[in-house]
Amino acid sequence: MKKIAVLLENLFDDRELIYPYFRLLEAGYEVHLVAPEKDKEYKSKNGLPEVSTHSSAEISAEDYDAVVIPGGFSPDLMRRTPATVEFVREMDKAEKIVAAICHGPWMMASSCDLKGKKVTSFMSIKDDLVNAGADYLDQEVVVDGHLITSRTPKDLPAFLRAILEKLED
Q1: 32, 54, 102, 112: which one is catalytic?
Q2: Which range marks the domain in which residue 142 is found?
Q3: What is the dihedral of CA 114, 33, 85, 104, to 10 degrees?
Q4: Which of 49, 100, 145, 166 is the most core-located residue (most Cβ within 10 A)?
């Protein structure tokens, strides 16, 4: 069974964490909520609590097929945990699926080689991605090799279709 890591930190966007989490479970994948600390409660920007199943320090990219990075303000906090940055970096190096939505590509700017890669995001972080070397596109979903990005919660259906299609390749 393929394993997916969904990154978790405080101030996540409820929809961008919950929709992918349950959609991937529904599709038959093993899904872990990975945060700086295991078995800790993290709250969304609206106060919704979620409890991590794994800490980023205890996992390895070799054990996962994909990582999903929700938006909200959580990616800014995720980037402050070296083990989380290293996990995403290793996923990128191994060319495993790295999928990020909204502010999620902030994490990619800190972890992935974006030079010459096509990406999208919430418009306010466009400059961060361009400065990291990415080619920015304003589209509901952008797939460039193993990288999958989307802009906002309204893009979630296209985002998940792209992830599920890539997982089935």
Answers
A1: 102
A2: 3-168
A3: 40
A4: 100
